[in-house]
Predict the structure.
Amino acid sequence: MSKGKVVKKFIAILERAETFAESSNSIFREHFRLAHFVLISDEFNFRLSVKEAGALLHSYGFSDFAEDMCRRIFEDIQSDEELLYSEEQKKALLAYELTNIFGGMGSWNDASYSDKEVQDEFLSLTDDLKVFREKLVQEYRIT
């Protein structure tokens, strides 16, 4: 699968995840929305200062929490002088990190739904997220 196809599929999964998270009142909705935005936005890039990136997110209605979450990862990627990644790789790495929601207490994995259809969709979505996060790493050679 080519890089373009991996990103397109991951974007589709992020859209599905955002819709699911919104309908289930999940705290992870903004993680998915932000990762989606980073991958599709031409305006968002690593030539921006941290302050400019935050202002851009704010202009698109992201919460202070989302801006802070993104800022921390954005700064780490931007300041790593040994990281010789392209813009595309940096955006993929940021999206990967923003969707790192699978471990620890209170993680995405802790959710459970009594409705079988909802639970089945959650499990399917979880599998897709894990698979395509790893495909992003493989295709873009990011870690």
